[in-house]
Amino acid sequence: MAPGFGSADLFRMIGSFALVLALMAALLWALRRLQSRMNSQNSGRRLQIIETVSVGPRQKIALVRVGTHEVLVGITPTQMTSLGQLPEDSHISQAAHATPPANGDIYVA
């Protein structure tokens, strides 16, 4: 008998490949359902990170919303520091076109 693939080996390989593809599709479907379930559970949270900007290799500035307040936070590997608080009635899109406040509030352009 000559070495090589027989028809039974070919069908076994195709079947195994189809099984692997079916398992991957089932895993992808399960992960999407889990992600949508987690997003629906997080919708009631009061703490949200709106945006982060890296200012160095290990330093970031983050805009964090806590309820209705927005707080600018500096983050380093050893600490987090509040840099300022945005007024409650300000929105980032409005602040880009407004003049900077004179009372010491943080202005984000």
Question: How does the SSE layout of this entry go?
Answer:
Elements: H1 7-42, E1 47-54, E2 60-66, E3 69-75, E4 80-86, H2 92-95
Antiparallel strand pairs: 1-2, 2-3, 3-4
Structural summary, described in words:
With 109 residues, the chain is of the alpha+beta class. It has a 4-stranded antiparallel beta sheet, with no helix packed on it. 37% of the residues lie in helices and 27% in strands. The longest helix is centred in the first third of the chain and has 36 residues, at 7-42. A hairpin with a 4-residue loop joins strand 3 and strand 4 (80-86). The chain has 2 domains: 1-44; 47-95. Mean pLDDT is 80; it is low at 93-98.
Shape: elongated
Spatially, the strands of the biggest sheet line up as 1-2-3-4
Instruction: Provide the succession of SSEs.
Output: HEEEEH
Q: Level of helix content?
A: 25-40%
Task: Compute the number of structural domains.
Answer: 2
Model regions low in confidence, pLDDT < 50 over at least 5 residues:
93-98
Q: Mean pLDDT, rounded to whole units?
A: 80
Largest sheet: 4 strands, antiparallel
